[in-house]
Design a protein that fits this description.
The chain is an all-alpha fold. It folds into two domains: about 40 residues; about 40 residues, no CATH class. It has three helices and no strands. The longest helix is centred in the middle third of the chain and has 36 residues. The radius of gyration is 25 Å and the shape is elongated.
Length: about 100
């Protein structure tokens, strides 16, 4: 990490609290922008690797099956976190999954 110039620290210390809060918000914005740019680079690299595999595209029904499996897994994870028994019926007599 780059060293912060003492003159910048002095200037920050002279700012009123409202302006200091604005500076903090701006620094957070810049940090998020950098993180987003880095994520975009990683995504591009991943897509290039995936493209290099020359796999055939998934059919619509295969995509739907993947989505449903992920949803079912996620709902099971949430149920475990809440201490729910997935096999137990809801008060309406339905499983609550769907």
């Amino acid at each position: 990490m780059a060293a912060i110039a003492p003159t910048l620290i002095e200037k920050l210390q002279k700012l009123p609290p409202q302006r200091l809060a604005e500076v903090e918000d701006f620094v957070e914005f810049l940090t998020m922008r950098e993180a987003r740019a880095a994520a975009g680079v990683r995504l591009g690299e991943s897509l290039a690797k995936l493209d290099a595999l020359n796999l055939p595209p998934l059919a619509d029904d295969e995509i739907e099956a993947e989505i449903q499996a992920a949803r079912q897994e996620r709902s099971g994870d949430v149920g475990e976190m809440l201490g729910c028994d997935r096999a137990a019926p809801t008060p309406l007599g339905r499983s609550g999954l769907g």
